[in-house]
Amino acid sequence: MAEMRFMQAINRALGDAMEADADVVLLGEDIAAPGGPFGVTRGLLDRFGESRVRDTPISEATIVGASVGAALSGLKPVVEIMFMDFMTVAMDAVVNQAAKAHFMFGSQRPVPMVIRTPHGGGLNAGPQHSQCLEAWFAHVPGLKVVCPSTAADAYGLMRAAIEDPNPVVFVENKSLYPIKEDFPDEPSHVAIGAATIARKGGDLTIVTYGAARKTATDAADILADDGVSAEILDLRGIQPWDEAAVLASLAKTHRLVVLHEAVEAFGAGAEIAARIADIGFDELDAPIVRVGAPFMPSPFGRGLEAEYIPNAERVVAAARRVLE
Amino acid sequence: MAEMRFMQAINRALGDAMEADADVVLLGEDIAAPGGPFGVTRGLLDRFGESRVRDTPISEATIVGASVGAALSGLKPVVEIMFMDFMTVAMDAVVNQAAKAHFMFGSQRPVPMVIRTPHGGGLNAGPQHSQCLEAWFAHVPGLKVVCPSTAADAYGLMRAAIEDPNPVVFVENKSLYPIKEDFPDEPSHVAIGAATIARKGGDLTIVTYGAARKTATDAADILADDGVSAEILDLRGIQPWDEAAVLASLAKTHRLVVLHEAVEAFGAGAEIAARIADIGFDELDAPIVRVGAPFMPSPFGRGLEAEYIPNAERVVAAARRVLE
Amino acid sequence: MAKAKPTACDNRTARLRDLHERMVLIRRVETRLGELFAEDEIPGFIHLSIGQEATATGIGAALGTDDTISSTHRGHGHALAKGMDLGGFFLELFGKADGICAGRGGSMHVADFDIGMLGANGIVGAGLPIALGSALAHQVKGRKSLSAAFFGDGAMGEGVLHECLNLASIWSLPVLFVCENNGWGEFSPSDKMLATTPLKLAAAFDVPAKSVDGNDVEAVADLAGTLSDAIRAGKGPHLLECKTTRVLGHFAGDPQKYRDPAEIEALAKKDPILRAERKLRRAGISAGDLAATSERIDNAVEAAIMQARNGANADFASAAAAVYAGGA
Amino acid sequence: MAKAKPTACDNRTARLRDLHERMVLIRRVETRLGELFAEDEIPGFIHLSIGQEATATGIGAALGTDDTISSTHRGHGHALAKGMDLGGFFLELFGKADGICAGRGGSMHVADFDIGMLGANGIVGAGLPIALGSALAHQVKGRKSLSAAFFGDGAMGEGVLHECLNLASIWSLPVLFVCENNGWGEFSPSDKMLATTPLKLAAAFDVPAKSVDGNDVEAVADLAGTLSDAIRAGKGPHLLECKTTRVLGHFAGDPQKYRDPAEIEALAKKDPILRAERKLRRAGISAGDLAATSERIDNAVEAAIMQARNGANADFASAAAAVYAGGA
Ligand SMILES: Cc1ncc(C[n+]2csc(CCOP(=O)(O)OP(=O)(O)O)c2C)c(N)n1
Ligand SMILES: Cc1ncc(C[n+]2csc(CCOP(=O)(O)OP(=O)(O)O)c2C)c(N)n1
Ligand SMILES: [Mg+2]
Ligand SMILES: [Mg+2]
């Protein structure tokens, strides 16, 4: 069991997938010669050459749209959108084309493509470089959405996403990139839509994904000092998400907190809470409490951003509310 | 009390606002000389001239972005995006620019603009001309989102939206356009974010908005035959939405169904259900059941679309579940 | 399109007969679609290309099955010129289970991947990057194919065209950009909405470009052939502007009140089918011959319509199960 | 920028002194920003325009307070050339409550609406439609103002530029498109990414355009003045390409490993400030005079930094209350 950074795990998954399948190609701004703005694609140009690893002009709408066309014509493109905020420029290609092609053309062809994009704060990058917009994509039938929180999951989900015959939005929390973690010698695929229990517990369930898993763990540590045992479920997949795993945990704890870095209102957590307020209602012994960013753009200033991103204290407070 | 079509009410609101304020200008594809693809802007070019009522090229990203610049420079633009599906082409301007300008520039200037856009099915217009994407915009701090269901509300909300100093996404269900309704002789503004009780009842609450209000009413009629009295709350505003009105109704009925035409999963209804599962939990005597479109693109064929759009039977079934 | 292989001297006439027949097919299909729409047999938004058949047909004649095309909201002609099966086409427009898109897409989304027709598209300009990506696949996979991107003059308003011209140019992709310039974008005349032309734009990106009378099917086919040869020879993207005529309105049922009646009347003179027929007559094809073609096509179209009418409706459960590939 | 009004014969020298002083200010501000960022006093993403000061300054000199500009991610120079207050600027970059944007925007979003600076922008190309809309407001409201849209060469990849050139052209809007062509878009050389040039694009839309040595501040100011006069005279949009040099990397801290060291070294010869100083010396301005200017500016910058350091941090509750105008 060696150590590996989160970003290296993604790099390795891309490399392994490209070794395994000559149809996998990479597209994006500054991903080839420069190795990516965060270094995620470093070395892949040298290994796989200019035809398969392509620097593109600053043309998000077109590179995603071209990925759809390429996917419909036999390639498996993995396209990088440098910041999730820039997905706004490519939404037609994602939503009207990639997501719908299999369905609306009568199942004639799959659309095997992956859109890699970093979300999240922590770099004081401000309102246009920090947004967590995964809820938008989860609302679009035909897309899959994943958001790993560990190096091993990043590897496994990337391999699965590239092999999936559907368009997958692969969300990478940029604050995780440099983090080093245990990495298996023989890493394996992770099924899209399968949650994992990040920590076992019996008093309440915290459902989360991405970088917020760390926040949940910190909160669980604090709660443990008070004798409260929190179970943490890391969804990993947001569309589809692992309803059964949430229900199973709830059957033990009967109390639910939903946590993510995205803005709380109309965020992905709303679906989880809403769904459980329906099918899990009889299991609930307390209100479902969500923790997310407040309803404001991601602010620039250090203090502002620090207060903006959900922290362990807020999760602990939410836990206390459901334990009341 | 005369009768007026839904689309005429919007037309009248636009005309009245333009009479009242010379800064109000209209932009959009085919809205001036042709009077709009659905005829909503008919006659306004003749009344207000070419400078204030402008046909644009097919350049959604730019006409919305230009509306932001115009709003920051003293105009109050009302821009039409012909189908809500085409908002995908203009998302940067809406989300990164319009929504954030007031906040990220330190409250220096308001961004008084309205984006009018029709959503919804019923015309067999297929997967790229029928989407209800309002949940996306409700998730974006800085935007307001409204969706009227009656001619009077359409008028009143449009007047309020134009006068609001913030960017408002004004969603018009296109199946409502031709519908004729009572219209007050002296129509008034409707506060953004204020719900209205569309029907009084005591056994359960149906929260809805837009064209689905009619579906809710049909369902309530069926339930009434069985002696069940449903209260229907028409939100009208989705961001902000009237939490207090929902809680007040729930305090009477203790049972909640949330209904909209949009896809159920990760839709606007998720937020309402999630929020009530938190702050309204103690009032709930039953699961919260949502009714929305299934998780698939809006299909073309007649039978397919008819089955796709939520109907009264599905609402009745949901009501029966919460009444169990 | 079935490719006749006649001997040298009547090569051109034989080809023109093929082209003419294809145009008559498109015309007949769309004339009937207009009627079926008016009679409420066919739902949705229908955009007819009557008057523009020579463009679709001429381009289609230059392409093989391994070549790909992306199309627009006005895509019936492109689909039929590329060889889409009439049965699957009509079943689709009726929203039937056996439609080419299983009744889920309709007129704005007809597609047939087996013949390289990557779909009509409801979003103006959106077909351009799709064709580009298909060309990228051809290039990466070392195929000799090319990819044609149809777009209207109105689509020149969308920035995605600019992006695609640029990307195709720097990567030397095998793309044929085809502008169907009918002078209108919905209800607005393009000369009021655009300060540029396809040729000027192409020039700005060093993409070789030509303009052609888009109602002269032979001229379109000739030029499309020349440009396609250049593309296949590795000379990178090319653009062809076809100046053509939208005889009917933007959509089936559009009364075209925004248009000068004299302008509409004048269009008859430019009819691509009548022009081809005059040429054929001069080349010695008899009126009876032409009438026979027309009758054959009418029969085929009516048979397809009848089949479509009687087809089973698309089934909801199958649609619901088709949101994801692989059944996930 | 303060406008001196000297007598005829030393008009040009006086103006050059002003221009030079403004460039020195921008250089000093950004040099210090680079240091403050390296010392972790300033957070976020910082894009410095060192080497490009003549472009911002020359354009700024042609504009009045009633004219508007939209800027890019590399906007410090544009802001300062338009007249942004140094105090509010530094407070913003430190994320302080009294920053020009209340500490909510930072480097990528500096804006000052009172002087027509409509904001730097984190989205490549997004400033273009904003400037266009501002020009629309000028036109509709009958103002004599113009609106300048700064964009980089890399931004030519984005289709929104195409759309804006078109719309400005058909509506004859008072827009000055300013391309700061520094040859790079992040870590990629633009000649590999673009098949076009600003002049070719402008020509495609009938927008009159000129290219200028963007490191010659007088040349930029002259040409910007000429084009602005034409715009104010109702002649519609114009474009100015300023060929300039990005001396430092894409962002503060970028080691520029992707760049030939010889290329970077050669940039010193093109330094716009040194060039202006050589001219000033030839016009009789003493070295002491220039040193005094520099010292005055240093002092002003250090004072602003000190003020910013000591400023109160932005307050979360105020930010939370500012999401909507009108407090809603
Ligand atoms: C992004 C987008 N904007 C607007 C529309 C509505 N629309 C459909 S067709 C059309 C006109 C297109 O004109 P052109 O490209 O010239 O094609 P034509 O209809 O003339 O064949 C418009 C504006 C759309 N479908 N997609
Ligand atoms: C839509 C979008 N895509 C990508 C980026 C990332 N990005 C920031 S600056 C930049 C390069 C811009 O190059 P250019 O326009 O030449 O400006 P310069 O940095 O040279 O001043 C890129 C790709 C972005 N901010 N926005
Ligand atoms: Mg046209
Ligand atoms: Mg540059």
Report a brief summary of the structure:
The complex is a heterotetramer, with 2 copies of chain A (324 residues) and 2 copies of chain C (328 residues). Chain A is α/β, with parallel strands linked by helices and 324 residues long. Chain A is 37% helix and 20% strand.
* Dominant shape of chain A: globular
Structural class of chain A: alpha/beta
Share in β-strands of chain A: 15-25%
CATH superfamily of the domain at 49-82 and 117-251 and 260-285 in chain C: Thiamin diphosphate (ThDP)-binding fold, Pyr/PP domains
What is the rounded Rg of chain C? 19 Å
Would you give the CATH topology of the domain at 49-82 and 117-251 and 260-285 in chain C?
Answer: Rossmann fold
Which stretches of chain A are low in confidence, meaning pLDDT under 50 for 5 or more residues running? none
Mean pLDDT of chain C: 96
Question: Based on DSSP secondary structure assignment, what is the total number of beta strands of chain C?
Answer: 7
Outline type of chain C? globular
Task: Set down the secondary structure blueprint.
The complex is a heterotetramer, with two copies of chain A (324 residues) and two copies of chain C (328 residues).
Chain A: E1 2-5, H1 6-20, E2 24-28, H2 44-48, E3 53-55, H3 60-71, E4 76-80, H4 91-104, E5 114-119, H5 134-138, E6 144-146, H6 151-163, E7 168-173, E8 180-183, E9 196-199, E10 204-208, H7 212-225, E11 230-234, E12 237-239, H8 243-253, E13 256-263, H9 268-279, E14 289-293, H10 302-308, H11 312-323
Helix pairs in contact in A: 1-6, 3-4, 7-11
Chain C: H1 11-38, H2 53-62, E1 68-70, H3 76-82, H4 86-93, H5 127-140, E2 147-152, H6 159-170, E3 175-181, E4 184-185, E5 188-189, H7 190-193, H8 198-204, E6 209-213, H9 217-235, E7 238-243, H10 261-266, H11 272-282, H12 287-310, H13 316-320
Parallel strand pairs in C: 1-2, 2-3, 3-7, 6-7
Antiparallel strand pairs in C: 4-5
Helix pairs in contact in C: 1-2, 1-3, 1-11, 1-12, 2-3, 2-9, 4-12
The structure holds thiamine diphosphate (2 copies) and magnesium ion (2 copies).
